[in-house]
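Re: DP6 structure - here you go.
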Amino acid sequence: MTTAIRVRALANLALVKYFGKRDARLNLPAGPSLSLTLEPLETVSELSLDASLDADEVWLADAPASPSFTERVTKLLDIVRQAAGDGRRARLKTRNSFPTAAGLASSASGMAALALAACKAYGLELSSDELSALARRGSGSAARSVCGGIVAWYEGVEEDGRDSIARTLLEPGQWDLRVVVGLAASGPKEIGSTVAMERTRTTSPYYGAWLRAVHQDFEDALAAVGNKDFTALGEIAERSALSMHAAALAARPGIAFWNAATVSALHLCRSLRKSGVEAYFTCDAGPQPKFLVRPEHQPQACQALRELPGIEGVIECHLGKGALLLP
Ligand code: DP6
């Protein structure tokens, strides 16, 4: 057995959402997206190769992982094994510091960590663009968690996806943005993002409008990041999230990720804004509301969200680094 490679990767929160693929096998997105890599939402993984194993062995928080998660891990490892010409199976022990599969992007940090660990373990030397493209094969949003700070994921035009990669626009120290995550329900979500976005793409009459909006939102978000214009970025983030959920709600059958606390959080966010606390609402494929705020407004936003009925806790986040090796 080889010595274990230890890595760490953070989850990310999309301000301009990825929701729809142009190629499902390669996880090529139908549009670009823009995200924040968030401390302290971390995955720490340990990977070792073991020639005596017949199949990959995957542990999630000290328990054997589900067959579906193990299968996703094996799919990504197979790509690396093939490129490295090394068929050895692996043992992966992974752990998230936040609720798994509850709309908090655990697949993004998990697959970014796995891509990095696998390259090191199998001896593949990849550039950061290539690593992002590899992580994307595990989960689309993982392409972004390879990078730190404020990140753009370009959809690319190549059929093999080599130009569908994410890159850092601003490093964590270059703009201090904060996110308050509300924990609206801690159980696993009812429908995963992969299935939800495919159903939306194939059945929602709003999907075309959603995609057109994404391209404009992305251009506008790049400008807002370039100018460090918080108000513009916040408005784009809120409208991108609402448009994504509108398209999903219109799918057949409709997909409703929100619960009562999520709806209350949207209203709370807007009333905070009226009272001078500039918070913007976003939400992914689950019920957890997230508020984008300036550092000086974080305490008030946090307290208000924590006191909202149906919110079981909050996590205060700031920009963090891309995937990295641990000693
Ligand atoms: C709503 O990356 O989890 O969080 O590529 O099928 O693994 P797959 O989907 P995933 O989708 C994330 C969707 C989202 C929006 C976003 O993060 O951009």
